[in-house]
Design brief:
Length: 278
Amino acid sequence: MNVEVSGRMVAKVGRAPVIELRDVSKVHKTARQMIRAVCGANIRIEAGEFVSLLGPSGCGKSTLLGLVAGLDQPTSGTITFDGLQRSTSDRRVAVNFQEPALFPWRDTKRNVTIALENRGLGRAQVDAQAERALEAVGLSQFQNIYPSHLSGGMKQRVMLARLLAMNAPVMLMDEPFAALDAITREQMQDLVTRLYSARRFSIIFVTHSIEEALFASQRVIVMCARPGRIVHEVKLDEGYPRTFDWRLSDKVAALRRELHQLMRDLDAGGSGGEDARV
Ligand SMILES: Nc1ncnc2c1ncn2[C@@H]1O[C@H](COP(=O)(O)OP(=O)(O)OP(=O)(O)O)[C@@H](O)[C@H]1O
Ligand SMILES: [Mg+2]
């Protein structure tokens, strides 16, 4: 797969808000226990910034993303967009969940248009937005194909098209490529950086892959578990789109080593030894 991405294919989006999380904590309550999923997170994401949230399983990445998406409320702390309390119905945010969620009875195009239903848009506009998004991910030829006939990588491209079709200036992506083979995954990372390069949305990209975070983002925020909290941050000033040379560069190799060591140390130290249960 090699999809050419031009600005024309990626719709104009409004300006992204500055997103600020101040002292954000989230306790999940179950019938049997309370889990401190996120503890005292302070993050500022500039308009148009590409940030990765990196950390091991259970460190609260999806929880944090759900809070920014407005799908859940923090137990304490505040989340603001351009200084205003984040409202639950903010259409500036589009989110992709961790599990691919394609409807088997809908073809590719209708799996994209579903994101635009109930928005009061006319059929022609919905179709045009979906077609443009499918063009951007290289699936124009597959609009009428059903999910059972798509490869894993193609399904993820449909999910990406659904996200793009919403024309939201903030895109939240939760481990979108985790289930893909290494080569397809690299191709998808490449596609995301080319889309980002064509139109600077803000992206919060959740991953547990150090390589993926370093390749794609401008800033990597490292979290650790028990309880989930931010422990480190890496800034990358490399431009976009990112190239194969960047992936193999000495800088990425050195940072990869540093982050591997950090995560091993955190794991060996039991992430501070605290328990996540409240
Ligand atoms: N709805 C929920 N109810 C109760 N506990 C939850 C809920 N969602 C998450 N948790 C707990 O909160 C902690 C953080 O979970 P979360 O899904 O945010 O982690 P994650 O970093 O996204 O992990 P993964 O990499 O495996 O997706 C875990 O201990 C998890 O068991
Ligand atoms: Mg998760």
